[in-house]
Amino acid sequence: MPRQIQLNDQVYVPRSLLDLDVNDISPFWRTTVRERNERSVRVDLPGGARSEWVATSKVSIQLGVLIIRIGDYEEWKLIDPLYQSVLHFCKILLTGDQVRAFEVRTIRELLRLWKTYHAGYQQVILIGHGSERSIMIGDRDVSPSRLASIFSHPQPEPKEFLSLCCQTGQAAFGKAFSRSDCCTAFLAPFHSIHGCIASQFCQNYLANRLLDSQTIGVAFNHTRKNLIGAASFRLWPKGNLKAGPA
Length: 246
Known about the structure:
The chain has 2 domains: 10-58, no CATH class; 65-236, Rossmann fold (3-Layer(aba) Sandwich). Helix content is 28%, strand content 24%. It is built from 6 helices and 12 strands. Strands 6-5-7-10-11-12 form a 6-stranded mixed sheet, sandwiched between helices. The longest helix is centred in the last third of the chain and has 17 residues, at 195-211. The radius of gyration is 18 Å and the shape is globular. The relative contact order is 0.11. The mean pLDDT is 91.
């Protein structure tokens, strides 16, 4: 679990909550916590003033999205356009190295990049080909337990995983993977999913989750409710099916 916010912590707050210009290059204001009262904080504003009270649930100590594209020999048909659409949206939502994106074709490459870059990212987006029991990496069908073992080393802080790989929301994969220590929640499609719907779901979820500072469950439900075709997605926190088709 993320640690509690303390006095003098450097944090990110959506500009809309502080009555700051939301058309700035970043929709988040990087600032310092100056006061805390139970579940609310006051932070520094431009010019040295202090904000009104802001709920700690709306404040982030760290922002970061890690996108992993798992390619195949026909990646130009679906994987590449989906990857590009998600990447460009994330670059608009966040700035600088708050977004990192990698293309991998082997387990070895995945192990290397995770060991190097896992720190500092709360949401991990997987883009590739999947089934109800595996995700394809190169020419191998990788089980949820094997994938969890990769993401559990070297014992990083648990992440939110958003899979855009078909059918990985089914219990054989989603339930098993979400139980692992590396995962706080696993979001994934129950059926095969069109790339347009996958991209829209991902973008709307991240907007709800980060811009509006909604909890995982609330952001998930709002995304499914307001997006045609998104009903196929499931939410698995710690081995439990919380939302999505039964």
